[in-house]
Amino acid sequence: MSEKKIKNIFVNGAISPAFIADSIAKHATKTAIGGHSIFMGQIRRDEINGKFVAGIDYTAYEELALSQMDAIREEIFLKYPLNCMHVHHSLGMISAGEICLFVFTSSAHRKPAIEACNELVERIKAELPIWGKEIFEDDTHQWKENI
Amino acid sequence: MSEKKIKNIFVNGAISPAFIADSIAKHATKTAIGGHSIFMGQIRRDEINGKFVAGIDYTAYEELALSQMDAIREEIFLKYPLNCMHVHHSLGMISAGEICLFVFTSSAHRKPAIEACNELVERIKAELPIWGKEIFEDDTHQWKENI
Amino acid sequence: MEMNMKLEIISFGKISEFIGHQQVEISNVTDTDQLKSYLETSFPELVGMKYKLAVNQNMIQSNQSLKNEDKVAIMPPFSGG
Amino acid sequence: MEMNMKLEIISFGKISEFIGHQQVEISNVTDTDQLKSYLETSFPELVGMKYKLAVNQNMIQSNQSLKNEDKVAIMPPFSGG
């Protein structure tokens, strides 16, 4: 059996633009790459019944989420000729306007990066055991549901 | 008639990760946004007949490209419910590993941002009068063609 | 013959607001369908909710037998991303 | 009757390697199809190449008449992005 290290996609708190810039900059030495596709999820200050969302508090079944993500990663690498794939998801309280999801794919030509990125976002939302609790500005809450 | 300022998409030289981070950070106050989609084109160090590409020297028919881009921008804003759209393209010599195209779209929900970003990339490549001269490491060159 | 089984129960999302992390010792439960009935009797808030189980970190798609010391997660619909 | 027309010619990409920015004064050319023939005679490298014209910053899709002082761009296939 191969020894496999499961990658941790979780970060505590919001994903900063500086972190994203650093991740992009690291690819400058990978000169076989011709196209990068990025998706970022940002917390909306939605108004629901007259109350505004202050942020979302994310929790996850971390061990299961990481093994699910590992299987998804393998399937995506088999399906698309990618050079790189990076996924980061926030845990804890993320305020409106902050970034909670960062998906980053790279390939020699643009199409595989774009298609893999889209598929990853769909699968992350549908298949990873992560839950978002919308915290309103008056400290009440409701649980988010992906539809 | 409305007074319209045509946006300049052209930047001299490569697009830096710091510029991209700054562009992302500026959206933190736009709390109606839920999803951002980014495409970045990066110069490949392709090997062609035993010679390696050192970089691509971009030129454009700038006035025409900007008016074409302006029309594309209007069409995309009519077609998709976007909050933001940003396009930047390099001119001049861009070295292998550097970023020459940055397309950035944002919307309340993910799908419009993703679809608009993809459509923008296709249209930029097909419709904007921009030319890339591939410069090899031995200073010879060949003109790139989008296929 | 009465069968006794010890299970560890964990829960997430809105279900964690009424089912806490706990060890249960139950009888006459040998598979996940029976466990669901047991849970819905013990925690009536579950009735009518959509939820999935994972046993020892494997998502359960159809009925599956349980064994002593299994760790069962009760999960409402996911909302990551 | 002979018609004389002054045109400004600009070119891009690989075409700029053999057609420089220039003013031309030509006769018996009144539309873009005739201009293409004139260009392909003057610059035989153009023959067999794919290229498009723009007149006064408008892309030309089908034959169009020309007038004195028009600015014509000769453009090989685009390769931005």
UniProtKB/TrEMBL annotation, chains A, B:
InterPro entries the UniProt entry points to: MoaE_sf, Mopterin_biosynth_MoaE
Top enzyme class: transferase
An MF annotation (GO) of this entry: molybdopterin synthase activity
EC number from the UniProt entry: 2.8.1.12
Any one GO biological process: Mo-molybdopterin cofactor biosynthetic process
Catalysed reaction, written as an equation: 2 [molybdopterin-synthase sulfur-carrier protein]-C-terminal-Gly-aminoethanethioate + cyclic pyranopterin phosphate + H2O = molybdopterin + 2 [molybdopterin-synthase sulfur-carrier protein]-C-terminal Gly-Gly + 2 H(+)
Pathway as given in its UniProt record: Cofactor biosynthesis; molybdopterin biosynthesis
PANTHER family for this protein: MOLYBDOPTERIN SYNTHASE RELATED (PTHR23404)
Family affiliation: Belongs to the MoaE family.
Oligomeric and partner information: Heterotetramer of 2 MoaD subunits and 2 MoaE subunits. Also stable as homodimer. The enzyme changes between these two forms during catalysis.
Protein name: Molybdopterin synthase catalytic subunit
From TrEMBL, chains C, D:
SUPFAM superfamilies named in the record: MoaD/ThiS
Top-rank lineage group of the source organism: Bacteria
Cited InterPro entries: Beta-grasp_dom_sf (IPR012675), Mopterin_synth/thiamin_S_b (IPR016155), ThiS/MoaD-like (IPR003749)
Record-given protein name: Molybdopterin synthase sulfur carrier subunit
Organism encoding this protein: Pedobacter psychrotolerans
